[in-house]
C-alpha cells in the first residue's frame, strides 16, 4: 500500500506496521530493537522497533482463508496490518509469529534455521511471504498482536507514514537477530536502558519511539503492557509542528493519547 509524493499531503500516506516485541526480564521487561543502516533513507542510524511499510501481499494473505481462517472479529484492514507486522518482524528480526498448521503453539526456535535462509530472498522480492507460509504450513498468529499506538507523520512533511504500533510477547525460544542490511545491529534492552542510551548519545531514537518507550517503562512488565493494550483504546497521534524562537521544533500531541505530556520541544526535528 504505497503512496506517491503529491501536493496533497493526505495522499502521500503509506500505511506501516511496527511490532514491539516484549519479554519479561527480572522485575520488568525487555524489548527487541534494531539499529537502522545509515545508508537507508528513513530513520537512518536510529534505534527503532522492527517494522515498515505494508505490502500488497499482506492484504492478500489476510483474505486467504487457507492462511487466516479466523480473523477474530477483525476487519480486512486490521488483519492486513497485523500480517504486515508479522512479515516485517520476520524480515528484520528473524522471529516468526506463526503456528504450524494444526498446532496451538508458536513455531519452535529449532525450526527457524530453515526459515532464516529465506529472509534475504523475501527482502529481495524473490519469494513472497505467502509462499513461505504455504511452503512451511504456517499460519500467522494475528491474535497475538495487540494495538498499542497509532502515529501519523505531521501533515507538513513530504514523506508521511500512517504507522500502527502493535505489542506482542516474543516466543521464549526465539532470540532474534538483525538482517545485516536494513538493520546493522540488534539488542534486547529495557525501556529505561533504551532511553538512557539516547540521553547519553549512544543511539538516536525517533520522537514516537521515545514516547512509546516512556509509556512502556511506566507499565512495568511485559504482561502488564499487554493487559493495558488489550483494555485501552488507541488514540491517533498526528503531531502538530511549529517553530520556537530559538529555531527548535515544537510538537503538540493529544493529551488523550496517554503519553508523558502534550507539548514537546525537539531540536533538529
Your description of this structure?
With 269 residues, the chain is an alpha+beta fold. The chain has a single domain (9-238), classed as Nucleoside Triphosphate Pyrophosphohydrolase (Alpha-Beta Complex). Helix content is 28%, strand content 26%. The chain contains eight helices and 13 strands. The chain has helices at residues 56-62, 76-93, 112-116, 119-123, 129-135, 191-199, 207-219, 222-231, and strands at 13-25, 28-36, 47-48, 51-53, 98-100, 138-140, 146-152, 160-169, 183-189, 236-237, 240-243, 249-252, 263-266. The strands form three sheets. Strands 1, 2, 3, 4, 7, 8, 9 and 10 form an eight-stranded mixed sheet that branches. The protein has a three-stranded antiparallel sheet with strand order 11-12-13, with no helix packed on it. β1 (13-25) and β2 form a beta hairpin. α6 crosses α7. The longest helix is centred in the N-terminal third of the chain and has 18 residues, at 76-93. The chain is globular. The relative contact order is 0.18.
Q: What are the defining features of this structure?
A:
single chain, 269 residues, alpha+beta, Nucleoside Triphosphate Pyrophosphohydrolase, eight-stranded mixed beta sheet, 13 strands, 28% helix, disordered N terminus
List the helices and strands and how they pair.
Elements: E1 13-25, E2 28-36, E3 47-48, E4 51-53, H1 56-62, H2 76-93, E5 98-100, H3 112-116, H4 119-123, H5 129-135, E6 138-140, E7 146-152, E8 160-169, E9 183-189, H6 191-199, H7 207-219, H8 222-231, E10 236-237, E11 240-243, E12 249-252, E13 263-266
Parallel strand pairs: 1-8, 7-10
Antiparallel strand pairs: 1-2, 1-4, 2-3, 2-9, 5-6, 7-8, 11-12, 12-13
